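Chain and backbone:
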Amino acid sequence: MNDTLKSRLFVFGQFALLVLLIVWPDDRTGWGLLDFLFEFIAVLFFFGGAAVVFLAIRELFKLSLPVPTGSPKDKFLQSLRVILPEPSKEAKLVTTGIFRTVRHPIYAGLILIGYSIGVGSGPVPHLLLAIGLHVLLHFKSLLEEKFLNLKFKEYKKYMTSSGHFFPKVED
């Protein structure tokens, strides 16, 4: 299977899992007496993940991606380019802001959002879908890193100074 097809399958899988997490009916079996605690943690994870995604997308559009041009439809389609693991021809390596400490902050934010739904909705099936999303985004990020290593010679050095999904913890 070629890398372009893998890219598109990862994107499809990512969105399919996110949609399932959101629309799957909640059976309300929950966590028993710990429901309030887990729902509180879920709210923190959700808003933390959403903030991380927002900051990362803002940084990408500010520093790496060209300004969308044309009709509103063209601008929208050009903006969607950010979801594919392959960098565009015009893309620049972003290593500032949230990207200083994390190489894949958008994926990290989506993982936090996925776990927030999984923890807040009860153990099954939402938590299993969140784990599936985490695994899928891990493999999607490995493919993306393959592309980034080919495009940017300084990416290998950047990998040593930043964490994959979460900041590195120094010894």
